[in-house]
């Protein structure tokens, strides 16, 4: 088969039923017959720029070309854990055998290109620097119940939500929501402003707040600091509910809100006991275009919702390189997104491992940031485990060092409540942030150190005001992952151990 998918040859396409090797072209199958171009593009936009689209409506299929293979891997990895649903129908997303798309001038493909131009131009606006990481959200036409947890589920799709405050002002339900970074806030604003939380109502109006950070004293239904679970609850006022309703997907297609917060609830009326699908420690609403309030319980049970563990913090990691993976390696990498308690590489199946995080929120952060990333040449597959904890080997039973307890490790990044590290959680990137550099170590020393780990150093820059910190850009994201694992906590002398994390900016 040719490595180029051509729109004029669409009648010759045969379904690609296997998962191919990584490609920036994705094959989407089982689409409803009335799926629009905008809905297909919407499946990809939260992950990055969509550069081309080929619709095969007669076959209920489409090909989506992303801006890079890395972006495509993020998308496939995410949808391997979170079921993508279009118009109440689960769809299948996999890598295509094709490496690029070429489209013709047929009416179908012209519509696809027009939709792509319209949505991509809006998405490109999100590249501009965000004035703040705090958003002000107003919910208009609020005839259905909206809670803080509903907002958390919706906005967590676009980045790490640190804090939320909800309040009523001028008889309108409003919220202030702080992300870990401005880029996430910008993406959420571009893709959610003007969308409906419920069918035909609860419209989101989003703007940047003049505040740069939120100061929260209590964790309750009015305010919550997700980096400070130790805060007291205080005296929370009762939430105003404006009528029953069950949130469905946005009118913006393809967006599936996921909630890493383990006790998230929707404020559903008691008449409905619907358990959302997919194995995240919080709740994920499937993308259902119609209101569920008209469905009897027998109908909702046919939608395929399944029960999930309430707050599972144990991850099943598969597709590991059994020749190279170690418990320490997974501890360092996963430790970027939370405190790793225990790691167990399975004795008879060493390409699989169990990783126990400190809590379910951290487990979700690991899944959302590391699924699909390449480690030792193989893309990681990460899902929630059915186990609630990782068991240590019984005394006297040797497991060849495959199980390690890291619960008392001094290398935990998040053991201090409210740690600044919560604000510095970013996806893996080719640029690493280095800190705790002693005065005697110069640029060439650090370049040599990273070259010795097998990486290619493309650029280096000390922070202008603080030479204890620097940025180093390596040849690829995979090289950066390997270098972080090898060199985090490396002894630089003078009682300084190098701290390494992923950077949100490049040099």
UniProtKB/TrEMBL annotation:
GO terms for molecular function: RNA binding. The lineage of its organism: Eukaryota, Metazoa, Chordata, Craniata, Vertebrata. Keywords: Phosphoprotein, Repeat, RNA-binding. It holds the Pfam family RRM_5. CDD domains: RRM2_PTBP1_like. The keyword Phosphoprotein applies. It comes from Neogobius melanostomus (round goby). This is RRM domain-containing protein. The keyword ATP-binding does not apply. It comes from the Eukaryota. Residues 24-98, 135-211, 313-387, 430-505 form the RRM domain. One of its GO terms (cellular component) is nucleus. GO terms for biological process: mRNA processing.
